[in-house]
Design goal:
The radius of gyration is 15 Å and the shape is globular. It contains 7 helices and 5 strands; from the N terminus they run E-H-H-H-E-H-E-H-E-H-E-H. Helix 4 links the parallel strand 2 and strand 3. The two termini are about 20 Å apart. By secondary structure, the protein is of the alpha/beta class. It has a 5-stranded parallel sheet, covered by helices on one side. The longest helix is centred in the last third of the chain and has 13 residues. The protein has one domain: Rossmann fold, CATH 3.40.50.1000. Helix 5 runs parallel beside helix 6. The structure holds magnesium ion. Magnesium ion (MG) binds next to loops.
Length: about 180
Amino acid sequence: MADPGRMSDLGVGAQHAGEPPLAVIDVDGVVADVRHRLRFLRALPGDWEAFFAAADVDPPLVEGVELVRTLARDHEVIWLTGRPERSRAATERWLRAQGLPVGELRMRPDADRRPGRIFKRSELRRLGSRRRVAVVVDDDPAVVELLRADGWPVLRADWLAYEPTLGNAQNEEGRT
Ligand SMILES: [Mg+2]
């Protein structure tokens, strides 16, 4: 788990009195409706730049947005997404435009080719070493299964039918 680039995250350990527990939330398929851009991944080969570039016009998913607003009352919201770092500015802008708390946004490093579920498990272990994680929300069945097996309290976002195109891309190609 130790990653020299993230040493500031390690060694804290202590639970700080009065700090709210964490709610760790995925973006795509939970608060962002990705359906309009999945067509970029159905092409062979998939057009990843176009896929990410189109994210700034994702419609919000009302169920997810309401859930996050409710959780934010007594949790600290941490976003955990398979989107690459290069999408950070657009993602933060989009979250703000929906009236969502931006706070901490954890994104996959641009050169990271690990499957999405492995990246997320690694980030969760890091987060959980210093704060209590009260809930994790993700829409990807493969992510949900792995994180539950790792002991995390995961709520499966099921308000958008999961699109196998994206699941295959995230978990096998490790591109998002
Ligand atoms: Mg997702």
